[in-house]
Amino acid sequence: MTEVLLEIKDLGIQFKTGEGVVQPIRGVNFSLKKGETLGVVGESGSGKSVTSLAIMGLLPEKKSKIVSGSIHFNNQDVTHLKDRQFRKLRGNEISMIFQEPMTSLNPVFTIGEQLSEPLKQHKKMAKKDRKEAIINILKQVGIPRAEQIINEYPHQLSGGMRQRVMISLALLCDPKLLICDEPTTALDVTIQAQILELMKQIKSEKDMSLLFITHDLGVVAEMCDRVVVMYAGEIVESAEINELFDNPLHPYTKGLIDSLPTNNTRKSRLFSIKGQVPRPDEIGKGCAFANRCPYAFDKCIASAPPTFSTGEHLSKCWLQEPERQVKIQ
Amino acid sequence: MLDFIVKRVVQVVIVVFLALTVVFFLIRLSGDPTTLFLPPDAPKEQIEEYRELLGFNRPLYVQYAEFMKGAVHGDFGESLRSGEDALGLVMARMPATFQLAISALALSLIIAIPLGVLSAYKRNTLFDKASVGITVIGQAIPNFWFGLILIFIFAAQLKLFPSSGGGSVKHMVLPVITLALYSVSRFVRFTRSAMLDVLSKDYIRTTKAAGTPTSTLIMKYALKNSLIPIITLIALDLGVLLGGAVITEAVFSWPGVGRLLQQSLMNRDFPIVLAGVFIIAIIYAVINFITDILYAYVNPQIRVK
């Protein structure tokens, strides 16, 4: 069995808000093997981004707190790591690509200046070597005339180009784990396809694990080996990619798959899951999805389901209780 | 670039022309200067004679045309009081005002920018709350009152610094502190809010995710972005200070432009007032010009091609 790079156990994160304490992450478990691409799927507000920020140690210090569980990265417990120590991992062994390429680069520094930062911090490279390394990586991510681009400012580049710069920034120190938080959401469809293609290519060239956060199951199908589905701060289902699409066990996953547009359903309206993700303070003692679930019954409202497993396929739904085992096709 | 400069010079000419025109007519509303030069019981004929001598008996538009003709050649006439060249008198006072303004501004920035940055970084801590509280008080205290209190404590009681006049570094201490109090408060609050705004931006998160230490993050990557609005405030402040900090200069009898203009207004010494307005308008225009160039330096998005 391949080695585990990232292991998250029973993670719980609380946030202080004006109206009191809420807990957007409630007992998240998953692991990522070396060289694997894991998709994290869910609607806005399901806790995907908060989880990834926790892995980067970038949760807002004063407002949030990890209240339970642990995060292990490369056999090191990083759950309550001091910022000073976390800094050595960030941009070095763990990197992240953010959703908004348009606003994620500093407008008053050149591309070259911004890209030299991780090399200065982690590799202690001399100026000349840094320049060479930067031009090299920009070429790898498919940026033309890299020698000029390093002296240009972000506003001189298009969205797709900026995202390529963001990717190169994340790759500079050859990270073991690359977290991609909706890297293509803000881009138009053709650019999106190019960026996904680029990421696949980089993945195949480098020995790297990918945590791919998205709300788009289409992107997941394209990129990932395995998927975890998040809903309201929990993981409701996790499975190998083909298994998940062929045989979804949780009604939420089923709803997400049914919401995908296909080529031959032009005539009717797209399917959508009714309602929206509950706010953390709206979740009762039952299953968080119960109020939107077409299969919900008494037990779903009375108590929250535990995780049931069928081999590697995990789901958090009363329908999968061993004595029930309902197929939801 | 040349295009830019030409445009700005034309703008300056228009601004100076308008400022002089407005002040020329406004100042006439303050009354006839001749009455101030003659005893209250002077006979009517004598007043008339004096008015004719100074040219105040001619129609206003003739006086205006005459004045503008002179102004174009840099001639603002002589002081009604001393008979010296008005522009020369104003220029003689400029160094003192410059000295005070630059010192006060430098002191404010040295204190306020680090304080503002620290306040933003330590947001909602005791330090931040104390600094916000103190700066509110600093902005609320009137200048003249604070100046008088300083004179009372450090000049009258402790006898550490002279209470009035100019000429030495010791003379500068109290007026500079008086002027800096307000500026420091304004700059601290402004730096703090500009910094808070920048710290919440996506690109700061990106830099943090690259493993940048907090000190570099703030002093390099965040500060340069915050400077854009701060430069505006510096320009405004400098304009006010160079125009003559009238009240502070009066309180400390500082031999600057502000005090000269204030006295000239009281004496209805029109040529000096107009020469002063001319100089101040030009100073404002130059400051604006430099500010625009600084903007382009700090913010590449508005750099002229």
From TrEMBL, chain A:
Name of the protein in question: ABC transporter ATP-binding protein
Statement: the UniProt record of this protein carries the keyword Metal-binding: no
The ABC transporter domain, residue ranges: 6-257
Localization per record: Cell membrane
Taxonomic source organism: Bacillus yapensis
Membrane topology: Peripheral membrane protein
GO molecular function: ATP binding; ATP hydrolysis activity
SUPFAM superfamilies: P-loop containing nucleoside triphosphate hydrolases
GO CC term (a single one): plasma membrane
Lineage: Bacteria, Bacillati, Bacillota, Bacilli, Bacillales
Main location per the UniProt record: membrane
Keywords tagged on the record: ATP-binding, Cell membrane, Membrane, Nucleotide-binding, Transport
Superkingdom of this protein's organism: Bacteria
Similarity comment: family membership: Belongs to the ABC transporter superfamily.
Pfam families: ABC_tran, oligo_HPY
PROSITE patterns in alphabetical order: ABC_TRANSPORTER_1, ABC_TRANSPORTER_2
Alphabetical GO biological process terms: peptide transport
Automatic annotation (TrEMBL), chain B:
Keyword Transmembrane applies: yes
Family stated for the protein in its record: Belongs to the binding-protein-dependent transport system permease family.
UniProt KW keywords: Cell membrane, Membrane, Transmembrane, Transmembrane helix, Transport
Protein location: Cell membrane
Gene Ontology cellular component annotations, sorted alphabetically: plasma membrane
Membrane topology annotation: Multi-pass membrane protein
Organism encoding this protein: Bacillus yapensis
Chain ranges of the ABC transmembrane type-1 domain: 94-291
Residues passing through the membrane, by range: 12-31, 98-121, 133-156, 168-185, 227-252, 272-298
GO biological process: transmembrane transport
Chief localization: membrane
Name of the protein in question: ABC transporter permease
CDD domains (alphabetical): TM_PBP2
InterPro entries per record: BPD_transp_1_N (IPR045621), MetI-like (IPR000515), MetI-like_sf (IPR035906)
PROSITE patterns: ABC_TM1
Source superkingdom: Bacteria
Keyword Transport assigned: yes
